[in-house]
Structure formats: structure tokens, C-alpha cells
């Protein structure tokens, strides 16, 4: 079934609709495939199930969300510091599990270097 779904998807030119499952939360209110920035403007949320609230207010269904080009939306620059931080955390826990304190220290140092460099990276 999984392989059949992959083959069918590759041969099809159409994308899935934005809300194929009648979802209640905001991740179903963006176009499919999703843009990098999610929403062009922050949505106003007044309840627990905002998408269902919006659907009720509009009479049952919402139109397919419009695509935006993303101009004027600030996105962070690509960075490798998150991977360095994750590697430091993995090294720390590996040293913790096998009982090597020097590996723990190296993992903590790498984690702090990654976090510090990531936080003060030029925009």
C-alpha cells in the first residue's frame, strides 16, 4: 500500500488540498505544500479550535488559502549551528550513558559553543 501511494503521488501533478482531514488547528489553514513562513499575517485566535471556528463563521467551508510570495517577511539565515548544538547534546548523553566524564565535558562545551554562536550569529 505504501509503495502504491508513492508511485501514485509521483505520477500525479496535483497537490493535496490545504485541509484534507477537516482539521481544527491552524496548520491546516495554510496552502499545501506549505510555504517556509506559514502565515503572511498572524491569525487571530479566539478559541480552542480556531479553524473550525472560522469555518462555522463562514458557513461550513473555507476557500483554498492564497499563496503569498513572502516578500517583507523576515526569515532567519540558514545556519549550521543548530546541528553543532544537537551534536554536542548527543555527545554529552553518549558520554553519560557509557560513563566517560571527559566525553560529557566535551559534549557540554560543544553544546555551549553551538548555542552561543547560534544566538549571536549576524542576521
Fold and architecture overview:
With 123 residues, this protein is mainly alpha-helical. The chain has 2 domains: 2-58, no CATH class; 81-119. It has helices at 2-11, 50-58, 81-98, 101-119. The longest helix has 19 residues, at 101-119. It starts with a helix and ends with a helix.
* Main sheet summary: none
Task: Give the N-terminus to C-terminus distance in angstroms.
Answer: 45 Å
Number of strands: 0
Order of helices and strands: HHHH
The quaternary organization reads as single chain
Total separate domains: 2
Structural class: mainly alpha
Helix content: 40-55%
Uncertain stretches of 5 or more adjacent residues? none
How many helical stretches? 4
Report the portion of residues in β strands: under 5%
The Cα radius of gyration reads 22 Å
Spatial shape: elongated
Return the average pLDDT rounded to an integer: 89
Q: What's this, in brief?
A:
The chain is mainly alpha-helical. The chain has helices at residues 2-11, 50-58, 81-98, 101-119.
List keywords for this structure.
123 residues; 2 domains; 0% strand; elongated
Chart the SSEs and their pairings.
Layout: H1 2-11, H2 50-58, H3 81-98, H4 101-119
Helix pairs in contact: 3-4
Amino acid at each position: 500500500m505504501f509503495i502504491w501511494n508513492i508511485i501514485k503521488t509521483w505520477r500525479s501533478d496535483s497537490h493535496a488540498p490545504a485541509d484534507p482531514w477537516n482539521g481544527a488547528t491552524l496548520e491546516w489553514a495554510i496552502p499545501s505544500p506549505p510555504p517556509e513562513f506559514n502565515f503572511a499575517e498572524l491569525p487571530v485566535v479566539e478559541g480552542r479550535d480556531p479553524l473550525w471556528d472560522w469555518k462555522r463563521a463562514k458557513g461550513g467551508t473555507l476557500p483554498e488559502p492564497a499563496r503569498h510570495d513572502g516578500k517583507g517577511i523576515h526569515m532567519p539565515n540558514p545556519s549550521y549551528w543548530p546541528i553543532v548544538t544537537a551534536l554536542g547534546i548527543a555527545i554529552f548523553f553518549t558520554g553519560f550513558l557509557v560513563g566517560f566524564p571527559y566525553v560529557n565535558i566535551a559534549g557540554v562545551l560543544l553544546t555551549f559553543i553551538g548555542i552561543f554562536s547560534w544566538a549571536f550569529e549576524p542576521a
